[in-house]
């Protein structure tokens, strides 16, 4: 039997030792306090029995929604009266169709869905860019899918199910209401998304943090997704600390109990994000290029070693890029890249100068062997672009990117580099 999530989080935070998974995908339900439980999935669903129906925070994803409902029903049979979206990412709202189906089956009214006013706009965008988002997620999670226990289907027809429930009630800055006899506060703050909220139950001292806490380095830099907001993320965490929470329930990772322990975790996350923003803006003000900033700004290893700050999903280098994008736009400061020539043309010129794509690839393999994998990937790309149909070139490019994947920690890096390896492997195997 797996450890109780509160016992595990306390032990891990106090010891700093991680000897079992912290983001558990079991779809099992565990009681955290009187009338409060959590279903641990890829994205959790927290459930509060208000005495006048169940209040759920997030619906998990399309692939896990039914299992989440099944677990909730093993704990309580009451109507799910409220479903609160912490934000509109598909792994938080995609399972809502199962909540609607549950209400129909049990002859209850459907849950009253509450979310920030930007959630519906996000759903519209996902509908407009469904194929693009499917492709992104297949690449993002493709590098370590088997390790994460995910089900990112290769044959998805829609990124977000048509039957996903939209919010019935929205708000802009904050929304207060009473559930049963318990006061509930919902507060908007930009962080991982522009439609994020965190929930505070002042009488219980319970904080529902959504993705503001994910038991990995903050997902404020994702290279394939829309803008994130590192400084406002930190501000939201500071505001949470002032509430004095005694129980924190995130949407990923483990719940945390204890006022001091929670404050320490929130402060560590906020401080790291604030430091990155400060460093990047100071260098921007000095006229430094993005290239210089990326290779200068660092997060101390002692911070990255903390069990709730490990860069296993996103990583600080990507957050730096997102800070630049927010404050400085998309141009990186290199004049040639303002209106660049096509990659294939640049690669062809470099191949001519070096004596052919084979020479570029030969040097790439030497660099990989010497440990300079970053430079090896540059040359492997140039060789591949210069010889787009050469099976030997692409077999070697696939080898280099497989090696690159093995050297990386974050899911996002692993997924993208695995995607590059697959791309070249397909060319090599069809020629």
Binned strand content: 5-15%
Provide the CATH top-level class of the largest domain. Answer: Alpha Beta
CATH topology of the largest domain: Metallo-beta-lactamase, Chain A
Return residue spans where pLDDT drops below 50 for at least 5 consecutive residues: 144-155
Largest sheet descriptor: 7 strands, mixed
CATH A-level architecture of the largest domain: 4-Layer Sandwich
Number of helical segments with 4 or more residues = 17
Q: Assign a percent range to the helix content.
A: 40-55%
Mean pLDDT: 95
Q: What does the overall shape look like?
A: globular
For the termini, the CA-CA separation is 50 Å
Tell me the name of the CATH homologous superfamily of the largest domain.
Answer: Metallo-beta-lactamase domain
Protein structure class:
alpha/beta
Total number of strands: 13
Count of domain modules: 3
Order of helices and strands: HEEEEHEHHEHHHEEEEEHEEHHHHHHHHH
Radius of gyration: 23 Å
Strand order of the largest sheet: 1-2-3-4-5-6-7
Chart the SSEs and their pairings.
Elements: H1 5-15, E1 28-33, E2 36-40, E3 45-49, E4 54-57, H2 65-75, E5 80-84, H3 90-93, H4 96-106, E6 112-116, H5 119-128, H6 130-142, H7 145-148, E7 169-171, E8 174-179, E9 182-188, E10 197-201, E11 206-210, H8 230-243, E12 247-250, E13 256-257, H9 259-285, H10 290-294, H11 301-304, H12 316-328, H13 343-354, H14 357-370, H15 373-386, H16 391-407, H17 411-430
Parallel strand pairs: 4-5, 5-6, 6-7, 11-12
Antiparallel strand pairs: 1-2, 2-3, 3-4, 8-9, 9-10, 10-11, 12-13
Helix pairs in contact: 6-17, 8-9, 9-12, 13-14, 13-15, 14-15, 14-16, 15-16, 16-17
